[in-house]
Amino acid sequence: MEGFPVIDLSKLNGDERSSTMEMIKDACENWGFFELVNHGITPELMDTVERLTKEHYRKCMEQRFKEMVASKGLEAVQSEVSDLDWESTFFLRHLPESNISEIPDLEEDYRKAMKEFALEVEKLAEQLLDLLCENLGLEKGYFKKAFYGCKGSPTFGTKVSNYPPCPKPDLIKGLRAHTDAGGLILLFQDDKVSGLQLLKDGQWVDVPPMKHSLVINLGDQLEVLTHSLQEVITNGKYKSVMHRVLAQPDGNRMSIASFYNPGSDAVIYPAPALVEKEAEDIQLYPKFVFEDYMKLYAGLKFQAKEPRFEAMKAMESTVNLGPIATV
Ligand SMILES: [Fe+2]
Which domain of life is it from (predicted)? Predict the structure, then answer.
């Protein structure tokens, strides 16, 4: 198997632009994942975010995690745990409205660094969406517009996680296998403690830790939006891919995953420009409001995505997707 795709984004500005675009296309079609270096977010800002995230975990999260482990008896389990993950998390929302000022226990410098980091990640996400449009032959801004919905904003947030050392890594996952519900996911992961794996051709493949890189993956919404009937056998042109985090016996894994998702009222369906006319009546993918998909996903995250798409199709036939009220 060829190696995990690592893409140097700075090469978009030089002679290697077309080969770099080709690498992004190949990664989207065949991996659903890639790792970016020289992506424009400064090493200094990433170092600050990492330092403050690790400090915050030690100060505010570690004790709480230990109490959770003790209360559920996770240190001494004898059989596989299938309803819990070995992770400590909190969630920051940036768009449509930031909740950073409401999160308790965050030092002021940490709030400031996370706000700055989120702005940079948002810019990068929009740049990447345009690169995907270019590779697909869609007009510039197509995905951004699709994600903005009537209210004019994507949903954008960051899940800050730590995966502490685990005494029973064969019996509990750091995070159970799933595909991501949303659009584009940009992950700043620990450069020393690994654990993230994706499913490729039936095999779990490690996503290599690499300093100052960002791991990008595609969520279910990009699979729906890029559906093309040329790809009728394999369904979506671009795929959201199953991934998981293994718990590790040593080391604490930091994971800062930012989700650039459609707005709650955005209507998601295959881009008409990618769907051949003669086959328009063959509908493999649904048309739905993103918020409805998220309600369904909340209960079915750790299951295959296909039944979710089927459920949205069934819902589509019972609701009217006319103009969406904006109030
Ligand atoms: Fe995920």
Answer: Eukaryota
